[in-house]
Amino acid sequence: xxxxxxxxxxxxxxxxxxxSYSSPPMKKAKNDLHHSPQHPNTADKVGxxxxxxxxxxxANLSRKKATLPQPTKKLVIxxxxxxPTLPTNFEETTWEKLQSAIRAIFLKKPFSFDLESLYQAVDxxxxxxxxGKLYDQIEKECEEHISAALQSLVGQNTDLTVxxxxxxxxxQDFCDQMxxxxxxxxxxxxxxxxxxxxxxxxxxxxxxxFRKHLSLAPEVEQRTVKGLLSMIExxxxxxxxxxTLLSHLLKMFTALGIYMDSFEKPFLEGTSEFYAAEGMKxxxxxxVPEYLKHVEGRLHEENERCILYIDAVTRKPLIATVxxxxxxxxxxxxxxxxxTTLMDGRRTEDLQRMQTLFSRVNALESLRQxxxxxxxxxxxxxxxxxxxxxxxxxxxxxxKASLDVIWEESFNKNxxxxxxxxxxxxxxxxxxxxxxxxxxxxxxxxxxxxxNKGTSEEELxxxxxxxxxxxxxxxxxDVFEAFYKKDLAKRLLLGKSASIDAEKSMxxxxxxxxxxxxxxxxxxxxxxxxxxxEINESFKQSSQARTKLPSGIEMSVHVLxxxxxxTYPPMDVKLPHELNVxxxxxxxxxxxxxxxxxxxxxxSLGHCVLKADFSRGKKELAVSLFQAVVLMLFNxxxxxxxxxxxxxxxxxxxxxxxxxxxxxxxxxxxxxKNPKGRDVEDGDEFEFNDDFAAPLYRIKVNAIQMKxxxxxxxxxxxxxxxxxxxxxxxxxxxxMKTRKVLSHTxxxxxxxxxxxxILLDDFKILK
Length: 767
Prior knowledge:
This protein has 767 residues and is mostly helical.
């Protein structure tokens, strides 16, 4: 084979004498006489002739003349102008060679040509502009074999799993064969395909042919999809399947570009039907915690399925389908069937699972509403049960604590859920307008009163903090203030406070919550107690005390500022002579020190310690002032009637009956009543119990008058309402001064904004 060449002119050098080329010119030597082994005599005078022996120099000169360079000769080569031609049947011969190799590849037979020669054959065809025809021939050859391979799958009456294996083998063979053909015809991809944008690469051409003939054999495609769906359903039913087979076939669908239409659509439809049926079944058969665990497991399985063999593009719609069928459709049923149970059981882990799953389907609002309903219903049972008023506050504290744990551990401290708990608690704690506020004050009184054994300062402080949370929810804080002030007064005056530091800590907390105006009177009560201690010390050092006080009696006086302390009804009593003397001496001392003031003795708040002699030994009795007055009557008589005691003491009838009941009918019976009974009647007689015995030396006689009566509660509540009337009047005056003219509706609206304690029951006050 001759190849066309270009005409050119060039010169070349040759050492041959009979050549037509001339030798290149030789350069003239500049240092011919340099020192060398052939010239030992010229070592000292290099480049100069020596006079002693001129003969060698002459010989060197003659040798230079003999080797002078000759002029260069140029050679011109004239090439044949005729165009080269391809060998006969070059194209046919080359294609036959390639065709036989391609057929051998498809038939999985060996071929007689090495890959290098096949690659060179394709390269030669491309070199002579025959690549387009070669591409078409390769495409035609591939189409025949691909069509035959797919047609061989038609009519296969085998098991679906076996059929899928045949399809996988067909696809794997196709991939291997196309890769081999592409490696042989790589020149086509690199030159012809790149230069022609509308021409597919050999690999894409093969995929297009496979896709075309697969569509022409719908039975194969349909059975393949059916087999895939069947295998996936089996796996969902906990049967073992060949995941590698599934992965390969689904990758085939993706590579062919038919994944979305041929597989994903029926797959999602089947998934929806499967989980719709499963959701209904499990919802009826299992409880809510188990159902939620099942849903969580299913979501994990489907996510893992997407990782292992299902295309990543299907993950989002697949998970959404599962969530819709297993969760979204059953939100209300799950909440109605199991939310209350989970909350009552404090099952934080299950509630956290519910919150996580509900967040996936944007159902947190439904969960929040269920939480609100639960808090209100459960709290209403606590607040409205009048028989358990004694335990109401502790029950509310326990309930709030459990809700806080659930909010932190299950709802991840979600702000919306936290606000829901607060709003619901505020609603339920004000269902009974004033009673919860009163009971919270009583609860604090119980905790701050002396006698709480086993309670450390840290535990007491923690309890105060928790109660303060309930206090924040109360709308009628003025009711709380009234009862708290009344109980605080008793603790301070009777010396029943467990810790002054704890008392002041609570006052400080209330001041932080409601401002100094709220605690001004409470702080004033502490100032009075401190000042009273100083006054008593000063009184003991005074001349009046040293010279005029009767012996055998010690008395401590609390001087109270009227505006700070609760209002106490005056109660007259005929005191023993010794106590009257003591009161007069102290009054004289106090008025001499603080002129212009008026003292009023509150006998109902006094308490005493009496020394009593019984036949079995001496005792000390801790009693109220009224009890002391009654007992001291028995110093002069062993038996007295009810009328005699009443005339001698002038104590109000009801108060006297309670006092005698505590002395003769209680646990500590210092007096004996005749006839016996729980109530004191007009004709009863009382006798000193000389045989009284008790293991302790100092005995506390419970004074019934110290316990709060219904009348006192009513009186306190009425005072609160009266104060509210004044606050409402003041608020109306402020509003009308600012607005001048205002409609009734707008006036009520602004009044609600300024006065926080107004509830529905208070509208009669507004009118």
